[in-house]
Amino acid sequence: MNLFLTLFALMWQQAAAGTLQIDMLDVGQGDAMLLRSPEGKTVLIDAGRSDSQTSSLLGALGVKSLDMVIATHAHADHIGGMVEVFQDHPVRFYLDQGIPHTTNTYARTMEGLEESNTGYKSASNGMVFTLDDDIRIEVLHPDSNPLRGTRSDLNSNSIVTRITHGDICMLLTGDAEDPTEEILMRRGIDQCDVLKVAHHGSQHSTSTRWLTAVKPKIALISVGSKNRYGHPAPETLQRLEYAGATIYRTDLHGRIHLESDGETIAVTTFPNSAKALESSPTIAYPKDKPAHATGGVSVPINSATAVTLEQLPGIGPVKAAAIVTYRSEHGPFADAESLDNVPGIGPATLAKIRPLVVIDTPKPTETQ
Fold this sequence. Notes:
Elements: E1 3-6, E2 20-24, E3 33-36, E4 42-45, H1 54-60, E5 68-71, H2 76-79, H3 82-88, E6 93-96, H4 104-115, E7 119-122, E8 127-130, E9 135-141, H5 153-156, E10 160-165, E11 168-172, H6 178-187, E12 194-196, H7 208-214, E13 218-221, H8 234-242, E14 246-249, H9 250-253, E15 255-260, E16 264-270, E17 283-286, E18 299-300, H10 306-309, H11 316-330, H12 347-353, E19 357-358
Parallel strand pairs: 1-8, 4-5, 5-6, 6-7, 11-12, 12-13, 13-14, 18-19
Antiparallel strand pairs: 2-3, 2-15, 3-4, 8-9, 9-10, 10-11, 15-16, 16-17
Helix pairs in contact: 3-4
């Protein structure tokens, strides 16, 4: 039986609009995600590394306190920033996987938790936390009997949560690996609009079977630029591309902001947000349209960056890079049909993107 836990029977200030806001913070090679409900409740899932400045990023978004913090597992790139979060933001409730770790980072985190007088519970499949009337956080994993003997037991026992807001679903996976995905699929995992890709896009998760079951329209990857692990793995990106998901990465897109009204979800990215650069156009994903809908925006094929080209259906990062390479070697495309010459782009892909591209004349490059 599901355990229903209703968070804090207090009066909350009504938000101006009935939207659930989700921010995947740009914390480098780590994870940190912020949820803000229409009624003003705040939930932080993971806190990045100790040098991620997660607490400062929360402050910049106007967060003064947190109703709930979820630590998906005890690795330093997920809990390293927790102590600073505890120091700067009162936290009402803390949830973790309940598996101790023999590191100073874990010890400091638990000391900070104790000093903050925050409520604590270990996660277990079946818990349901209600934020607003139509927003729920369901714990899908771990079980009461943790997985043992896997490649990484901490990763495989990551807290996996499903967030639902009306018709919109988001699946957040921590650093879950293949054994976790297999367990969830055996139970019958439901389709979800948004997938927070596990383990920074590692090769050890996000299998083809998993993506076939979840069918995400939007894939979020929190990853550091040029990290030493090679995340995200090329094969993971390829699987996501074949699954038809639009991929957003913090190393390429900066902070990734999603807004759900319960029926549609809109995505806005903030590249190099620490330098206050202008945000990208918002792209909306209605429930009845494919993930690659571009909101009526045409893509100028001869001047678009690889990041922009990734948004086209069936393209993704690999084919986007191939388009840019072909363009630089052979000059501007004369027409949309010329894209068929790019390695990896065949008639089926061309048919998808032809209505969304325009043949522009790139500006001449100035010589120094």
